[in-house]
Amino acid sequence: MTKEIDNKNNAYTMEKSGQVGEIMIADDVIATIVGLAATEVEGVASMQGNLNKEIVGKLGIRNLTKGVRVEVVEGIVTAHLSLTMNYGYSIPKTSAAVQERVKSAVENMLGLEVAEVNIRIVGMDMNTAK
Question: Residue 125 pairs with which residues in a beta bridge?
């Protein structure tokens, strides 16, 4: 299996010998998977610059790439997330859960290795205190 980066299209290309064609995964797809996985963790209010998950669910908006930056180098993903946390949750425990959820989602759905999931807490949501 050959893997390469198509920098002009911001996509990661996976080529398997014997296949009919090639598979290209856009960086936005990876970022969406990262953002969705992160917002599924209890204690995460939202991504930076994003609507909270209740509004996202009701309106059907799936723009979860704000607050997410991904880098793919030779099949290895590094993700950078900016999160708003719910008040009352342990930041270290919630952040560790986000890192594990993101790593698992990317590796299971895309077959790419995740080297780092870096989290930056940018705010605290006081309206959703537990």
Answer: 86
Residues 81, 118 contacting (CB under 8 angstroms): yes
Query: In 3-state terms, the chain is what percent helix, strand and coil (to 5)?
Result: 35, 35, 30
Burial class of residue 73 (count of CB atoms within 10 Å of its CB; 0-12, 13-18, 19+): exposed
Q: Are 106 and 30 in contact (CB under 8 A)?
A: yes
Q: What is the pLDDT of residues 8-47, one digit of tens each?
A: 457 777 666 566 777 888 888 899 999 999 999 999 988 8
Measured distance CA(83)–CA(46) in Å, rounded: 6
Q: Exposed (0-12), middle (13-18) or buried (19+): which is 102, by Cβ within 10 Å? A: buried
Element (H, E) at 46: strand 44-47
Output the CA torsion 53→54→59→63 (10° steps). Answer: 0
pTM of the complete model: 0.77
Dihedral of the alpha carbons of 52, 58, 59, 60, in degrees to the nearest 10: 90
